[in-house]
Amino acid sequence: MTREQERAKDAFERVKARVSKDEGWRNEYGGMAHKIPILVRQAGLAQALAFIRSRGKEAHQALLEDLAHTAARLNAEELITRSREASLTTYLHLTREVLAAALWYKRFAQSLLGVEEGSDE
User: In whole angstroms, what is the distance from residue 25 CA to residue 43 CA?
Assistant: First the structure.
């Protein structure tokens, strides 16, 4: 199995487990899934992760945990810490992994949760 297939499988299982949540929760989760790639590209990985954590919403925290696992097999706090303390090479690698995983979360937010971009606004 390729790394991309592993990302897709892990993200699919994690998003699928969120389908039973109420519509508002799914919209928050899926809406943030759409925003993550933009946040990372505009602000950088460490700031984007800190921003998501600071929002304090349960759905955002769940997405952060899911994304951390898919991207780096870490929990959210470990990913946030690693992104702050990493060497440049490691930071760039983590950024690529998070962006690659975020793409799957965005796709599955649309297909499984029915959340389109801007649904949490």
Answer: 25
Q: What does each C-alpha distance from 58 to 24, 65, 103 come to in angstroms?
A: 11, 11, 21
Select from 103, 82, 91, 27 the least CA-distant residue to 60.
Answer: 27
Question: 51 exposed, middle or buried (CB, 10 Å; 0-12, 13-18, 19+)?
Answer: middle
Q: Give 24-82 pLDDT, tens digit per residue.
A: 999 999 999 999 999 999 999 999 999 999 998 999 999 999 999 999 999 999 999 99
Answering whether pTM is above 0.70, one says yes
Pairwise CA distance, residues 120 & 112, whole Å: 16
